[in-house]
């Protein structure tokens, strides 16, 4: 959410940003916010005046009563009553007007960084760089579930009966590999001075609307029937929520956290949930990075975050590339974002395995996450990034480490988490 002062002083900047985001239909919202804000400030000023006058007159009544000037006291009481009626009428309008302004402001996107490429959708994202040599394997790489099935490592048929499409049973070495990746990712980030956290897996509605846009919420979140609780789509949601309504001294910043959680997503609007794959699913697990920091540090820390993901994937012998998200591909709360994509030897193309975002103070304003600095109190900046989401990582890992004889090599970094096995041997 943007600062209301920006609407008052520079609405043209907001509209220029809407143009970059291809959301010019929201011009009217900006004008409406400005109009309602003028009305709100007017009635708030009048309400403050009435409260001040009412308090002064109340004191005057006491003085008059003490002097036994009862007739004059009654006249003043009548004035106080009139003020009370006017104040009550104003207060009935004041809170709904404030909420209307807030709801409109939450639909206006964050100001994007100056260097974000302008484009309508992900087809116009820009490649920044690649790391890792693309090796010709010299044989046809099977579909990822076919690889898993040779290890008796997945059962989609049973999952469909139990839960429906978009769920899975992982088994044996594949299940162990999944857990090994999250454990390795946890230690990878702890070794880089990130504090490890396991957060709540359900959050209240106020946190949901604080961490994401209404559109994202509708497309992603599962609501618990009869409760003010939602299943998280990523641990970022509850990790940022941890700081709701807090004031942190800047000397304790940045707060660098790495968190594990299961994730649940409706995937509304997705291009179909695959019957036989684990690329787009309703349930998965993830190791995340979250930072709360001083505004001056968020640009530098953004670079740090996504480079860690690149380093993580390269330690597992998976080639990657980094993609800068264009303006039209940025979610509304994001100031800047890059995706990390892994190489698929089977498809001979890269696919997304992680996303890194700088949200500046957009989430912090919604959730009242503030910091005390020598320059005064201000809103924090928040950032998040994927370390690893194992179902997708399993695809990249298995395809890149698969050998012609069907075995899968285990990179040295992962061996301590796999009982020091050097390779997985298929059962079928």
UniProtKB/TrEMBL annotation:
The gene is serS. It comes from Erysipelothrix inopinata. GO terms for cellular component: cytoplasm. The record marks 386 as: Important for serine binding. InterPro entries: aa-tRNA-synt_IIb (IPR002314), aa-tRNA-synth_II (IPR006195), aa-tRNA-synth_II/BPL/LPL (IPR045864), Ser-tRNA-ligase_type_1 (IPR002317), Ser-tRNA-synth_1_N (IPR015866), SerRS_1_N_sf (IPR042103), tRNA-bd_arm (IPR010978). SUPFAM superfamilies: Class II aaRS and biotin synthetases (SSF55681), tRNA-binding arm (SSF46589). L-serine binds at residues 234, 265, 288, 384. Residues 40-93 form a coiled coil. Residues 140-411 form the Aminoacyl-transfer RNA synthetases class-II family profile domain. ATP binds at residues 265-267, 352-355. This is Serine--tRNA ligase. GO terms for molecular function: ATP binding; catalytic activity, acting on a protein; serine-tRNA ligase activity; transferase activity. GO terms for biological process: seryl-tRNA aminoacylation. Keywords: Aminoacyl-tRNA synthetase, ATP-binding, Coiled coil, Cytoplasm, Ligase, Nucleotide-binding, Protein biosynthesis. Its EC number is 6.1.1.11.
